[in-house]
Amino acid sequence: MECIIPLKSCTALNRTIPLVQLNLNGSNVGSTTSFPSKALFGKGVKKVASRGTEHSSREFKIVAAVDEEKQTSTDKWKGLAYDTSDDQQDITRGKGMVDTLFQAPIGSGTHHAIMSSYDYVSAGLRQFNYDNNMNGYYIAPAFMDKLVVHIAKNFMDLPNIKVPLILGIWGGKGQGKSFQCELVFAKMGINPIMMSAGELESGNAGEPAKLIRQRYREAADRIAKGKMCVLFINDLDAGAGRLGNTTQYTVNNQMVNATLMNIADNPTNVQLPGMYNQQENPRVPIIVTGNDFSTLYAPLIRDGRMEKFYWAPTREDRIGVCGGIFRSDNVPREDIVKLVDAFPGQSIDFFGAIRARVYDDEVRNWITSIGIENIGKRLVNSKDPPPTFEKPKMTLEKLLEYGNMLVREQENVKRVQLSDKYLKEAALGDANEDSMKNGTFYGKAAQQVHVPVPEGCTDPSAKNFDPTARSDDGSCVYN
């Protein structure tokens, strides 16, 4: 690495060290010149005087030698020259570890929190005081900052700046990615054009790719009419990714990835099939969510096309979201804090499920009052208004009780693998496996329950064939 510094500009630096006499244009310069100390360049700095016949600007070279053996644990930039990790997070770290159940972010697998979302925010950046509440719901400041800045940048003309068109928000299940996006959209007054992963596959080849272009052009038309709009795709990895070796990679998967790549490269020239005019359309930001972006096509998620944001809510975020969930139930904040701390590894949806469980008792009381046989008449096509309930009192003890019930149900799913048990112990138990190996179903099955098996000659072509024998004792006689 070489650094060229004009001699006259070195006096502006604060820290100075004396320089040896330099031979510039054949003459010695004996003055002391200001020069940055080794604290700027590291410990292995070599000063090399440049020699030549013409040096009108009096420049000299500073060569910084990288010597890893001389570096110590106190060096701030130790190992930086050999750092090959991604600038934001190493998504490929989860390759081949996709769990079919999409476990929570705490634990092994791709959903282990590589970094917290706040780790991407520099400590030197200013924290702006956003109003992060929408209709009583809490929006995480880091989430809101990332989404608002990305959308705003895509509507700006920044000089010589390559702004990625796609923002990929990924993380564990049930962390509120989609709902937080909807709250930010409502805060900004945006009515997004929405797509789901289920629309990215079709029986007709090319139909999902065409649908993406149509939705993009629809959002562009809304922008052209003076209304801000974005294209929002939910669970992109479930529709365009490969979750394990059993996922079939179809033509539509390939075309969806290729179409998103093409739109990201040419956001103002998105043409529909059969319409190849040169009409320029407005740029439309694309927001996608998912659980594991390592399952997507790698060129699609490169930094020039997609900006990645790993969302792992902090304790403060979880408390704020839960405050919005229980805002109409008059649950004290200290009880919400205790509830969140009691279930640290659970998703945010878990606390919404606890609130829904509390209303189960009210529903049971209503069913008892009208009778089970009258539920259909009362709820479907009824002249009577829908039933109303008084708000149940939600105490911390009741919330913890229902929370523990949900945790036990989750543990049952992980522990009791009934499909394996049924296949192993079906019909006559292990007799099925024995019959497949030896071909003697009846005899092996009888031996499992210790029933005596008559022995004799079991060969029909033998002279002393015994039709009642179930096991051959080697006594067959032949002519």
From TrEMBL:
GO molecular function, one term: ATP binding
Region (Disordered): 452-479
Domain of life: Eukaryota
Ranges for domain Ribulose bisphosphate carboxylase/oxygenase activase AAA helical: 315-410
Domain ATPase AAA-type core residues, every copy: 169-312
GO cellular component terms attached to this protein's record: chloroplast stroma; thylakoid
Location of this chain's protein in the cell: Plastid, Chloroplast stroma
Function (record text): Activation of RuBisCO (ribulose-1,5-bisphosphate carboxylase/oxygenase; EC 4.1.1.39) involves the ATP-dependent carboxylation of the epsilon-amino group of lysine leading to a carbamate structure.
Name the UniProt record assigns to this protein: Ribulose bisphosphate carboxylase/oxygenase activase, chloroplastic
Organism: Oldenlandia corymbosa var. corymbosa
Upper lineage: Eukaryota, Viridiplantae, Streptophyta, Embryophyta, Tracheophyta
